[in-house]
Specification:
mainly alpha; 3% strand; 11 helices
Length: 290
């Protein structure tokens, strides 16, 4: 029983992190139609900026986390101005290549700034262990789940009940009609890049204390988040959340109990199998909606 509880918390924490990162993909895709290949390096950058605030500037971990997320949101807006706005009318493949170039630049800048030696991000709950049904659970995993649930609820509220969410849905449904109705696509795009980057940073910051920061830290998270988005039905809000939870369960519960040696690749095997039977994903539709 203790093993199951420990693995269940690990699966929930991992799924929560993937949900945040995948929501970052979704917001940007809905607003611009772009899949951002710099997402993984933005996840890494978020962790390093939080480390800079805490380690170099002496901020408390919580304050460092908040400042890092805000900083990354501003960086996302700058990235939109540089990598997307000049190419808005160009083919999506051109923009995709631009995001790939941005990823390489971000990784090179992080390497020059922090080097390649793995580092650990401090946590506000360092050393805290909570016993649940006899199983010791790291306090950071509980923090990850709690913060992610609050942020996911906020994003759902933003999509469903705010003016921005309504404009975003209109833009995703028919961009030309939305522009004719006076929706300012430039502002929506700028806000989407900021929110997407902030979500990526938050995902990296929350999971970094459980592992170590290095130059490829965010790449693995990005791949798993992208798999979650595709598995659930790319462009579908609830599909993204279901896909993230499913990957957490597959990797930690099934992989932890049955196929320990293959836990890392199990989510991708399942994704390929499901997409072979249902190419639009689990909750995807011919015209995906939020």
């Amino acid at each position: 029983m203790e093993t199951f509880v420990a693995l269940a918390f690990s699966a929930a924490a991992y799924g929560a992190v993937l949900a945040l990162a995948a929501l970052g993909f979704l917001v940007l895709f809905k607003a611009t139609g772009v899949v951002n290949f710099a997402h993984g390096d933005l996840i890494t950058a978020g962790g390093y900026i939080a480390l800079w605030f805490i380690g170099d500037l002496g901020s408390a971990p919580v304050v460092g986390y908040i400042f890092a997320v805000i900083t990354m949101g501003l960086i996302g807006m700058g990235l939109e101005r540089v990598a997307y706005a000049p190419l808005r009318r160009r083919p999506h493949l051109t923009v995709l290549i631009a995001t790939l170039a941005a990823a390489l630049v971000i990784r090179a800048l992080i390497s020059l700034w922090q080097g390649s030696t793995p580092q650990r991000l401090p946590s506000p709950v360092d050393g805290t262990v909570v016993t649940v049904l006899g199983a010791p659970i790291a306090g950071q995993r509980i923090l990850v789940i709690a913060v992610a649930l609050v942020c996911i609820a906020a994003v759902i509220g933003l999509f469903g009940y705010s003016s921005y969410g309504r404009q975003l849905r209109a833009l995703a449904s028919d961009r030309e009609a939305a522009e004719l109705y006076g929706i300012r696509t430039g502002r929506i795009s700028l806000a989407a890049w900021a929110l997407s980057t902030a979500l990526a940073a938050l995902a990296g910051i929350l999971v970094a204390p459980l592992s170590s920061l290095d130059l490829t830290f965010g790449f693995t998270i990005m791949l798993a988040a992208f798999a979650a988005a595709v598995l659930g039905g790319f462009g579908n809000l609830w599909g993204v959340l279901v896909g993230a939870c499913l990957i957490g369960v597959i990797q930690y519960l099934i992989g932890g109990y049955v196929l320990q040696d293959y836990a890392g690749i199990l989510p991708y095997v399942v994704m390929l199998a499901i997409l072979a039977l249902r190419p639009q994903g689990l909750l995807g539709r011919t015209a995906a909606r939020l």
